[in-house]
Amino acid sequence: MGYVVGIVVVVVGILASVALHEVGHMVPAKKFGVLVPDYAVGFGPALWKRKIGETTYALRAVLLGGYVKILGMYPPAREGARTLNRRGRPTLAEEARQASAEDLPQGQEARAFYNLSAPKKIVVMVSGPLMNLLICVVLSAITMIGIGAPRASTTLAAVSQTVAGASGESAGPAHEAGVRAGDVVESWNGRPIASWSEFHEAIAASPAGEPQQLGVKRGEDHLTFEVAPVEGQQGRVVGVTADFEYVSASPADVVAADWQMFTSTASVVVRLPQAVWNVGRSLFTDDAREATSVVSVVGVGRMAGEVTGDPSSLGLRDTRQVVAVLLSLLASLNMALFVFNLIPLPPLDGGHIVGACYEWARGALARARGKADPGPADTARMVPLTWAVGGVLVAMSVILIAADIIKPVSLA
Fold it and tell me: What is the per-residue pLDDT for 235?
């Protein structure tokens, strides 16, 4: 049951991330006056839908993403543009132009997306990825500031009756002296102790076998015990184990962590073809799959299942840590969506942004030369590339999903 909980959390998190990504596109598009007839979470038959204003909002049966329909993505063909192929049929670009024109209600051509200025087109297209970046930052802040990271405290979780020394097992010095679990370490030989690392260093610097003064707080009482460290297998020990406490990060720490996440994600995206090739090779050969290899949403779901299914095997102490890891997974997933969607190739948002940037630069150059505005860029000419890139993305997804099922990556 616990394993399923992790998968459900990731599925809901991915749906929310995709839905908000599409909201990022929809809000500025509507603000700029573009017709947006449909917004949906999921695909296939509608389980629920409601029309508000000009937009129909729907929840659909196949919960594998979502979409927003923005009308008029492609302008009509420019005079002299090639619209037929060698067989006399419309080209892919012309078919896209015709489909775009047919969707526009009669008399509403002025509200088509292609009529927006280039800067407004960029705002519409970049707002989707920026929504994922915002989700990533918010989840990171909740994880690092709201939940915090576990750190060894000066409160003792356990006091061992015996310890494994260099010459065999012996009585635990702290337990023998009267120290008990729940005591809070305050001093060592009169020197105040503020952290577990200070306490550990103080013990390591003390001579073995010689009594030292350990000051602790027990309830409202301040007690002192004589504890003689023994030589353990990894240095001097007194037979105590630290409890842990959660420490919140600073906003600067969150920014640094998000920047590190961005740079590492961008690095993965840059070498994505090679990374997918390596995963595919491990899938069809006896090569072991690398623990750091890229994964699909199926792989992320499996990892989340491991986190909630058997958290102790991953060194997670309590529910608070489990929640933090799940939120971190969703934060990294949204960072991946942000970076991936900015790849400057259609059908990704980055491809539309490149088209708008080209249109902007072309218009600026025309104005500088004293010429008329050339109008919207004929982005429909990128449709063949859209199909090619889409095919590659589908193939990559199939390879990664197959690998995550047959040769999954484990967090353990």
Answer: 83
